[in-house]
Amino acid sequence: MASGLPLRPQTPASSQQLIRSDRGSMLTMSDDNVMMKQILATHAPDGREFDVKLLLQHVEDILKRATLQAQPDTSQTTSEIEAETDAQTLHFTFITMFDALSYIIDRISREIAYKALSGIDAHATTVSLFDMLESYSWDAKLVLTLAAFALKYGQFWLLAQIYSSNPLAKSMATLKQLPSILEHSGPLKPRFDALNNLIKVMMDLTKCVVEFKDLPPSYISSEVPALSTAVALIPTAVYWTIRSVVACAAQITSLTTMGHEHTISTTEAWELSTLAHKLTNILEHLRKQLATCHQHIDEKRNVEDFQMLLNLFEMIHIDNMKILKALIYAKDDMQPLLDGTSK
């Protein structure tokens, strides 16, 4: 749903915090402004649309199953089974959509992998991704990048989960040094914990950004302070989330190329925790604005419903059914009447 939000919001004061670069120096507010102006300059959406929420659901499903367990958890709850049944009805829609997006997702994945192997700094890699995604909306940039990461990250853990029982997976896993990595999973646990923590915050922030896109424009506009504040902060949220994707991908690349002997440095550990902290702060701020937006929408709808009732009471009716329906079933969720004994 198009929300009519401004395409090039200004960088808000709330995002002008001291941040650390890959080289260990502190960036000032002025440097942060320059960085965000560079990102905003790459933003040139051309109106192309796809089902962002559907793709995000698949990304979330991959990432929540990509864990350090040797065997996949095959147990399912009733809600998970029902969710899978619902997902089957959307299978054709997703396949059609993915056919259209597979090229850009693959390009993003290859760009991240190449830059990680080349040792190019995270900011430069992030900017190159924004250049590649210039035609997409902010939420679409975010979800496409997460999808590219989820494919590689999911592949890594899928091999880890099945290599011991699948000859093909075993050969592939050996090339990626997975057996050696898993044998030393104890010492590597802090690294994977840091990755999982950052990935969780990345997903939470992405879902929050996508929620703003779903706000009904008939009940709220960018003139509402809470929405205008959020709109101004979203580019910063997208930048730092994609920057976090780059950092996570670099960690996996270092493991598969250098093996378990590559010990995470203090700087790398600091980077992951700092990114998680930064994203958490942005998420908290956006959630507050989102709650205020929902409150504004509810108030507008309540006023609208009240006015509708007033209009109904002023009209002449043959019977009182319209009024009763408006009072009792204001949200058009009328349930069928059931006989308590026979149904």
Molecular structure report:
By secondary structure, the chain is mainly alpha-helical. It has one domain. Strands 1-2 form a two-stranded antiparallel ribbon. Helix 6 packs antiparallel against helix 9, helix 6 runs parallel beside helix 10 and helix 9 packs parallel to helix 11. The N terminus is likely disordered.
What is the element layout, followed by pairings?
Blueprint: E1 19-20, E2 26-27, H1 29-40, H2 52-65, H3 78-89, H4 91-118, H5 122-132, H6 138-162, H7 167-175, H8 178-183, H9 185-213, H10 225-258, H11 266-314, H12 321-328
Antiparallel strand pairs: 1-2
Helix pairs in contact: 2-6, 2-9, 4-5, 4-6, 4-10, 5-10, 6-7, 6-9, 6-10, 9-10, 9-11, 10-11
Q: What's the helix-strand series?
A: EEHHHHHHHHHHHH
Number of helices: 12
Count of distinct strands: 2
- By secondary-structure content and strand pairing, the structural class works out as mainly alpha
Protein name: Sieve element occlusion N-terminal domain-containing protein
Pfam family, one: SEO_N
InterPro entries: SEO_N (IPR027942), SEOA (IPR039299)
GO biological process, one term: phloem development
